[in-house]
Amino acid sequence: MRHVFPAAILALISVSSLARAQLMLPGALQAPPAGSETPGSDRGAAPAPPKPIGLKPPTDASVIGRDLLRDGSSGLIAFQRGAAKDLQITHLVLAGAAISSPSEDCRVEVVAATPIEAKFIGLPNGLARYEVAVEACPFSLELLDGAVLVAREQGACDFAAADCRADPAGFWGPAAESIDAAQIKQLERARGQAEANMRANFRVLLKSAGKDKAAIKRIAGEQAGFSSQREMICRNYRQEDAHGFCALRMTQARALALEAAFNRKGEAQAGENSAKAEGKRKPKL
Q: What is the pLDDT of residue 10?
């Protein structure tokens, strides 16, 4: 009986050692103690600053060869691409009211010996902008997807020879009747993504303001005013309640405008940092 207990103890020690050997397989890593960090861990690194979605502005391909109507119902503007890949207006008809009798409708066709040039001047709000030097009625326009947004600060134009006063400003898109059921479904699917992109870019721009209360208030105010601005631009588009084409394109344009504002802010900040660094390098006299 004296030899039984030592044998039992040796057996238990052998089993315990085998278990540990099985748990610690060759090449296995032992879990680090709680609260410790492995080499190369970036848990303490500052998070990367948020960036906009990275949207691409519409190109002139979406309007070339298409007849666009103001509010999808009146007038007409058509484009072609010139030899130098510039944008040209091949047909321009404006609808308005008679100068001699404002209660009567009128139409004036702007005729030129050659296509009217639309001069590209950049992407100030994320959309390609063009200036159109129609002698009696100069205006600017921005390219949307399958539409253009025309602006004219001076208001309506008088075409005395045609006894017509017309304002080209507004949203020009496809004839409302040309938007079929299949297109309406596509527009509905695109609407959710456009809203999400706009909200994401808004949050990024707002975040970039940091603790600048004035900038935060301005950015938030502009975003709050967008809904009413979109309503004013799109409320007269024919059958807008059915297809929502104008509202979708304006939402997409807003997302691009927010991204452009973020990029401008970053460029301005980079310029300030560069100027400060240059000032530090200059020797004091």
A: 38
CA gap 162, 108 in Å, rounded: 6
Helices (H) and strands (E) in the chain, counts: 5, 11
**pLDDT value for 35:** 46
Taking the CA atoms of residue 57, residue 78, residue 69 and residue 229 in that order, the dihedral angle to the nearest 10 degrees is 30
Type of residue numbered 26: P
Closest CA to 198 of 146, 258, 248, 249: 258
Q: 203 CB contacts (<8 Å, ≥6 apart)? A: 50
Q: Model pTM?
A: 0.78
Token couple for 265: 């802010």
3-state secondary structure labels for all residues of 82-101: CCCCCEEEEEEEEEEEECCC
Average pLDDT of the chain is 84
Residue 277 tokens, joined: 């660094």
How much is the pLDDT for 42? 53
Nearest to 93 by CA among 106, 77, 115: 77
Cβ atoms 57, 143 nearer than 8 A: yes
The single-letter DSSP state of residue 275 is H
